[in-house]
Write a structure and sequence with these properties.
alpha+beta; 28% helix; disordered N terminus
Length: 206
């Protein structure tokens, strides 16, 4: 399954940093990223889009929310590849089949701005221990089979609703965006083509 994604925008005019970012982006064209994530139910994703639209309207942002098909919470990055890495995908799929975790609630009660990524995200002031545990377990499983893995002790679960350079003050949402996570998925993101492909998925079982 593929879906459209808004391209990441670097807005630094004609600076050296801008030239560097444009060159790096050009070098990445045709490549794809693999990462593990949690994806909300369709109704929740649509709610997130509306939340992003409300934030943009309230703070005068120029960018639109991301499509609901792209709403997700990243767990662990796997890598960037020029072609479809069959061997990596096979190894990841085998490793993830051994993960044991129960369903848990995802609850984002506030919005904030990540300046470094120029992203408006939904998050929670209290980190989800269940999601942190899953983040750690996925890293351990990938390490056990010799894969590159990502582990961040300061991992902060969040969902990006739109990209905009204008800062948005942290504020509590009128209505939290919440759902029960019952699975996690392997996503392939096509760089420069604004597409996602869902490669595999694994249930969270009681």
């Amino acid at each position: 399954m593929r879906s459209e994604q808004k391209p990441f925008s670097f807005g630094h005019g004609g600076s050296a940093a801008s030239v560097h970012h444009r060159q790096r982006h050009a070098d990445d064209l045709g490549k794809s990223n693999l990462f593990l994530a949690i994806v909300p139910e369709r109704e929740v994703a649509l709610q997130a889009v509306e939340t992003g639209r409300d934030i943009a309207r309230r703070y005068g942002l120029s960018k639109s929310p991301r499509p609901h098909e792209l709403m997700h919470v990243s767990l662990n990055g796997i890598g960037k590849y020029p072609d479809f890495p069959d061997d990596i995908v096979f190894a990841v799929s085998a490793a993830m089949a051994t993960v044991k975790a129960a369903p848990f609630e995802v609850n984002f009660d506030r919005a904030m701005h990540f300046a470094s990524a120029k992203a408006v995200v939904l998050a929670n002031a209290i980190r989800s221990e269940e999601m942190m545990d899953l983040h750690v377990q996925l890293a351990k499983e990938m390490w056990a089979v010799g894969l590159n893995f990502t582990y961040n002790p300061r991992f902060m679960p969040h969902m990006t609703v739109l990209y905009d350079e204008m800062p948005v003050p942290e504020h509590v949402l009128a209505e939290p965006v919440r759902w029960i996570a019952r699975e996690f998925v392997l996503i392939r993101s096509f760089i420069g083509k604004s597409e996602y492909e869902y490669i595999d998925r694994w249930p969270l079982l009681d």
